[in-house]
């Protein structure tokens, strides 16, 4: 399991607007939780559909990741992004944390995402973030 490569592949899929590439990072039965409430997206088809919808609401993402903390098959990593609304061009900043559990083959089996956003802003993260 190479968490840094997995994060790099997630970032590439996000930047390249490629929901299929993002979904390929997950096991066939992966659970993708966006926030603490609601049902997860389960399976690569549902994850690809989620990312298709997500990418339709954003353009020109600039993405940063912190250094991941890894323990056995689990990892956490902070992220930050500045992107724009495709209709209005208005900027939006979002930041959050991913909690990941990996399968033996290096794909993600469980994904939990917690985030906050600052609409109408283009704020860069503090020093030390990876871009």
In brief:
This protein is an alpha+beta fold.
Describe, in plain words, how this protein is organized in 3D.
With 131 residues, this protein is an alpha+beta fold. It has one domain: Nuclear Transport Factor 2, Chain: A (Roll), CATH 3.10.450. The protein is 24% helix and 43% strand. A hairpin with a 5-residue loop joins strand 6 and strand 7. This is SnoaL-like domain-containing protein. Residues 13-110 form the SnoaL-like domain.
List the main descriptive attributes of the protein structure presented here.
SnoaL-like, Nuclear Transport Factor 2, Chain: A, globular, SnoaL-like domain-containing protein, 3 helices, alpha+beta, 131 residues, NTF2-like_dom_sf, 7-stranded mixed sheet, 24% helix
Strand content: 35-45%
Radius of gyration: 14 Å
Shape: globular
Domain unit count: 1
Mean pLDDT: 93
CATH class label: Alpha Beta
CATH fold node name: Nuclear Transport Factor 2, Chain: A
Q: Write the element-wise H/E pattern from the N-terminal end onward.
A: HHEEHEEEEE
Residues in helices, as a percent range: 10-25%
Distance between the termini: 21 Å
**Low-confidence blocks of residues:** none
CATH structural architecture: Roll
The major sheet is characterized as: 7 strands, mixed
Total strands: the figure is 7
Count the DSSP helices. Answer: 3
Helix/strand/pairing category = alpha+beta
């Amino acid at each position: 399991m190479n968490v840094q490569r997995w994060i790099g592949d997630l970032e590439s899929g996000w930047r390249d607007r490629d929901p299929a590439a993002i979904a390929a990072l997950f096991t066939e039965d992966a659970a993708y939780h966006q926030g603490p409430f609601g049902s997860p997206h389960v399976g690569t088809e549902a994850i690809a559909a989620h990312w298709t919808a997500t990418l339709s609401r954003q353009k020109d993402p600039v993405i940063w990741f912190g250094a991941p903390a890894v323990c056995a098959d689990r990892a956490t990593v902070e992220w930050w992004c500045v992107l724009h609304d495709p209709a209005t061009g208005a900027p939006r900043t979002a930041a959050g944390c991913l909690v990941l559990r990996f399968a033996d083959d290096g794909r993600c089996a469980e994904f939990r995402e917690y985030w906050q956003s600052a609409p109408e802003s283009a704020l860069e993260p503090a020093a030390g973030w990876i871009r």
